[in-house]
Amino acid sequence: MGRKPACVCLVSGGLDSAVAMAVARSRGFACHAVSFEYGQRHVAELAAARRVCESLGAAGHRVVRLDPSAFAASALTGAMDVPKGRDGAEMARGIPATYVPARNTVFLAYALALGETLGTGDLFIGVNAVDYSGYPDCRPGFIAAFSAMANLATRAAVEGRIPVTVHAPLIELTKAEIIRLGASLGVDFSLTHSCYDPDSQGRACGECDSCAIRKRGFAEAGVEDPTRYSLKKRS
User: Fold this and answer.
1) What's the first-to-final CA gap in the chain, in angstroms?
2) For 46-164, where are the E strands, in sequence order?
3) For 137, which of 104, 166, 216, 234 could close a Cys bridge (C-beta 3.0–4.6 Å)?
4) Sheet containing 122-124: which strands, arranged edge to edge?
5) Distance between CA atoms of 143 and 75, rounded to whole angstroms?
């Protein structure tokens, strides 16, 4: 059997990035995973990322530490409260306080550089434009624009040796469809973490946008939700 081609996977520790990595693996790639520590209050996701990478057999896993001051204008990194108890209509009303400035742009730029070093232009990201919280860097237009830029940005692409493809295999799926896909690919969802405001034991709050979307997704998929929720969550 020949050597598997390499790809770079952005792995946050959340449900979507785990499924995106499982898709990459199912397509025959050796997955080089990258996670980021950027001052996020839900730093428990990094432990989840390590669990996911081990479970899915990553070829390597880097945790990159970034200066948190660049990302401070967000409820995920600063003093603002994480929105909770919002329904779908409220979530669709604009870009929420949990938006992190240029996060996916920065993360994909690092993945692009790492990919050129590894000799690959295949980058996988678990963004979703259907069941999501309104982030501009989770939309098809952003992925298309970054892909176009990336093919002008690296020596390997400009020389025609390694074209860049940003794979966003979940971008047009509902959360329920993502969960069903992950289940079919053997993803252990109990290893993942989605909550924006976990308690000191890493348990999900059950009330933030991410928890609400995740809970609804499991219910609609007909798959048991393995998430550990805080005892303080609303009934």
Assistant:
1) 53
2) 60-65, 122-124
3) 104
4) 60-65, 30-37, 6-10, 122-124, 165-167
5) 24
Report d(CA 6, CA 1) in Å as an integer: 15
**CB-facing half-sphere around the CA of 75: CA atoms within 13 A:** 15
| Total H helices, total E strands in the chain | 8, 5
For residue 168 the two structure tokens come to 């966003």
The token duo for 57 is 């057999």
- Give me the residues paired with residue 123 across strands: 8, 166
pLDDT digits (tens, 9 = 90+) for 149-195: 999 999 999 999 999 999 999 999 999 999 999 999 999 999 999 99
For the whole model, what pTM was predicted? 0.94
The residue whose two tokens read 């992925």 is: 143
Interatomic CA distance for residues 222 and 209, integer angstroms: 20
Q: Which domains does the chain have, with CATH numbers?
A: 6-221 (3.40.50.620)
Q: Which two tokens stand for residue 94?
A: 């604009």
SS3 123: strand
